[in-house]
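Troubleshooting entry. The earlier prediction with EPZ gave an output that would not parse, so I re-checked the input for stray whitespace and re-submitted. Clean input:
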Amino acid sequence: MSEIIVNGGKKLSGSITVQGAKNSVLPILAGTVLCDGECVINNCPNLSDVETSLKILSQLGCLYQKQDNVVSVNSENVNSNEIPENLMREMRSSVVFLGAIIGRTGKAVISSPGGCELGPRPIDLHLSALQKLGVEIIEEHGFLYCNAKNGLIGTEIHLSFPSVGATENIILAAATAKGVTVIHNAAREPEISDLADFLNSAGARIYGGGSDTVYIHGVKKLHGTVHSIIPDRIAAVTYMACAAVTGSKIELRNIMPSHMVSMLSVYRESGCNIDVTGKSLVIRVPQKLKRIPTIRSQVYPGFPTDAGPIVIAMQSVAEGTTVFVENIFENRFRFVGELNRMGSKIKVENKVAVIEGVNRLSGANCNCTDLRGGAALVVAGLCANGQTVIGEISHILRGYDDIVGTLRSLNADIKIKE
Ligand code: EPZ
């Protein structure tokens, strides 16, 4: 199994271009199923989750080509409505294909996506919304058999929680439904806006994407289009944390500062100097990081849960004690045990992590427990004394496009050992 080897203590320097957003490209690739023609997706990150999505598209009868960061998908001949169990297991967020497959074919068969490292990850909000849109769902033998016998009919849906995936599934299912669908208490993440922009460029009529109330006027069909994926705000703050823990100055290009407001304010509170110019920023960290009394993860535009592990790794070497309260996922802190092997002093009580800053971490052998927890270990390894060997790196490769190459371009002493 491949491992990432990091020798800590080196200052970083230079400039990087931030990858396209994983959590935007996945629902947009699902959305290409609705388009009767060719879609060209630019700024597509090279991720294993993208590879899995392309395998699903191929399974459905779509044709695709991928060249560097450009993917073209032709969905003229969709001839299946099933996602095989192995692909559902490979990527639980494949559930976002459900709305698009039903929208295109009227039916879908998927295996229950099950849980993941972050917890049980229920999909009750997805399923109850699809049922309101006219989908009959039979769950048996670990599979979901979905059938919109009379087609999808627009309706009003109130989400009890602003679920990102459920909001995306409803938008995808409603785009070609009969009539109007209104989503109340919709998720407001930037990735929702990007999905709505992509679908509208293919002929959909979606209003309010990115707000808490989304209106979808169903249209007969969607056509091919060209779209560029928004920058990945979580990848951006991951590289910023690498600079923060090594006292470095680096530049990030191709960011959307307006998507990062809550995170930039936390980084500034920790003592990072951040100058934003257009779609770039320069982060300088001249002195030891400072404690942050309390950080709480919230739905957008609050501080995102995905940035939690990254900031916890950063604050593990700050002056004083920081408290992080996780309000979204049950098992967000699984990586903490691995981080503490490197000398951090973090105590977890239910949904609260208390991070007592230490002067220096020490390199150790550790394993990724999930995507962002794995990224946190890379951040920690860059400032630890000595060598850190990180195993189970497939978690990291799901969401970071060439993180090792990117950090090496910033002068980090890091490599992948096959
Ligand atoms: C998306 O997951 C992201 N994944 C996650 O990023 C991100 O952490 C999460 O949104 C929150 O921002 C993708 O976009 C592919 P949710 P999703 O539905 O859609 C509960 C990463 O690291 N819930 O907003 O699954 C759920 O259990 C990944 O990039 C229900 O109870 O998130 C959780 O507690 C990890 N029933 C909360 O809502 C449902 O039907 C948030 O889930 C759906 C969700």
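This one parsed fine. The mean pLDDT is 97.
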